[in-house]
Amino acid sequence: MHGKLRLRNVLLALLSISILSGSAALASPACDTDLVIVNATVYTVDPKNPVARSIAVKNGRVQSVSDAAALDCPGAVRLDLGGAFVYPGFTDSHIHLLEAGYRELTLDLRAATSLEDAMARVRARAQEVAPGQWVEGLGWIEKYWPEPRFPTRHDVDVVSAGHPVILRRSDGHTILVNTKALQLAGIDEDTPDPPNGIIQRQADGIPNGILIDDAMALVTSIIPAKSDAEDQEALELAIRRNVSLGWTQTQNAGGSDRELRLLEQLRAEGKLLHRLYYALDEENSISRLIETGPRVDPDAYLTVRTIKLFADGALGSRGAALKEKYADDDSKGLMFYTQEQIMPTLVGALRNGIQVETHAIGDLANSTVLNWYEEALRRVPAGERAFQEPRWRIEHVQVIDPVDQARLAPLGVIPSMQPSHAIVDMYFAPDRLGPDRIAHAYVWRGLIEKGSIIAGGSDAPVEVGDPRIEIYAAIERRDLNGYSNDDWHREQAVSRETALKMFTIWPAYAAFQESIRGSIEVGKLADFTVFDRDLMEVPPSQILDAQLLMTIVDGVVVYKKAAQ
Questions:
Q1: At what angle do helices 339-351 and 363-379 cross, to 10 degrees?
Q2: How many of the other CB atoms lie within 10 Å of CB of 49?
Q3: Helix, strand, coil % over all residues of the chain, rounded to 5
Q4: Taking residues 237-254, what's their average pLDDT?
Q5: Ranges of each domain in the chain
Q6: Which runs of E-coded beta strand occur in 148-188?
Q7: Same fold, 1-89+519-564 and 311-502
Q8: How far apart are CA 359 and CA 334, in angstroms?
Q9: CATH superfamily entry for domain 1-89+519-564
Q10: pTM of the prediction?
Q11: Cα(240)–Cα(558) distance, rounded to whole angstroms?
Q12: What is the mean pLDDT of residues 160-189?
């Protein structure tokens, strides 16, 4: 708390000097407030008062929302936005914060235009690191390459200069390693596939360097652990990047108690610039949270009340669990748990007020998770739950049968979805699913019409993590160049008003915080995202060019665009 107050005092003092407007304000009655925002178009997401022109803030809360062009409050910091556009602070409902930070610190292969380009980047990094040190990279995605195939250890061996190499695919469910890494991990033709994992092999049975889902741990477990200082640097970097994009809260989709300890330290140092709603995914951490109950922060900066489970893998690596075989492979993907294995965790969570979010991508996985949730709700009647309304979630919900689409809302299950997945996956999903199943993929409008709300996210570092991209993808269902396949079901795109809710009030609801954030209303937290243009009116392509002017959290400007 002391760190937050120090940060507020420093920033308010700087703002008073640097951006106090010199223009004359309209006279108004004397007021006791910290901050006034004037000369703006304010999209409130409040149906009773959808658009305003000014906001007053006191002690980090909205004090007034007005149609007045200006407010005169002596002693308050005055932000004249010159006609800019204010939105409720954007929330990324699905991010991997630590990994997003490490994306900025390690070899980033997202921009590689071909296999040869990717390997050239690996060669360059291998020449930079000390002998014997691991070369780590992430973000490769073969579907954009002229030769759209998974690379193998042979591709990496020729560029790795004797270093062990691990390269994570963009979806986070597949790694590529070289022969040196396989040798260090003791993986050979006699190594069996672990439960819920696949070791891809050559025709002669020798591993080819591709490890999927739980097989990844065979290598990741032998990489030297990162220090607290390294992890803290990655977390701080991710947080600074998030506020520079306009996020005022991120909902972390899985982490550990150790990571939470580092975040608490950043908070004490005044470096936790945006709010965090945190899910735990390590087995021991999950058990402890179920036993002790939610950790609800009264300041809403670091709330822990959710556990993250996994039902299946990813579509790109063919680990997503499907009811019928992949259209381009003789497999159905991977399911990670049986109902008997998962039920004690779900029942314990219900009894002790813990929210559950489960990764599910394939149609079998989504149907199965709904079965699990339904059974847990049956076993624990409302009177035996810590919270009658558990607001359990399914993360991704990428492929879901119509019969299961209709089950979400009646069960109170919230789909947490990432629009950017659809505009990236359209380059391979039709091949994986075939024409019939693709009609039931990334069905945002269909779920909303059946009564669901959607908590919108980015899944960074799997995707870029930019709210402009997410909103554009939701309303256009086209890639960033304006392209969409003929069979990509653009009828599933949503309106701009709906897209705005997906990143404001609906994530707040999904975090039990709709009474304190998600819209700009009197009494709610003063979290705002400010852009230079009207995201609700400009041509869709111009959304991608919008400039973030400010990110305001708790009434404090935590990011401001530098003057040109």
A1: 50
A2: 16
A3: 35, 25, 45
A4: 98
A5: 1-89+519-564, 103-220, 311-502
A6: 165-169, 174-177
A7: no
A8: 12
A9: Urease, subunit C, domain 1 (2.30.40.10)
A10: 0.89
A11: 9
A12: 93
Report pLDDT digits (tens) over 37-57: 999 999 999 999 999 999 999
CATH classification (class only), 311-502: alpha beta
Which token pair is 418? 């990432």
User: Average pLDDT, stretch 439-450?
Assistant: 98
Measuring CA to CA, how many Å separate 497 from each of 250, 357, 419, 540, 550?
Answer: 21, 26, 15, 13, 21
Q: Is 112 exposed, middle or buried (0-12, 13-18, 19+ CB in 10 A)?
A: buried
164 backbone φψ class: left, alpha, beta (φ>0; ψ -120 to 50)? beta
pLDDT at 24: 30
Return the number of other C-beta atoms located less than 10 Å from residue 19's C-beta.
15
Q: How far apart are CA 77 and CA 16, in angstroms?
A: 5
Is the CATH number of domain 103-220 3.30.200.20?
A: no
Q: How far apart are CA 300 and CA 37, in angstroms?
A: 23
Structural contact between residues 123 and 81, judged by C-beta atoms closer than 8 angstroms: no
Which residue is associated with the tokens 């992949």? 326
- The residue among 395, 399, 254 whose CA lies nearest residue 315 is 399
Tokens of 478: 């086209």
Two tokens, residue 9:
């005092």
Mean pLDDT of 2-30: 38
Helix 363-379 to helix 402-411 angle, to the nearest 10 degrees? 30
Residue closest to 320 by CA, chosen among 196, 404, 194? 196
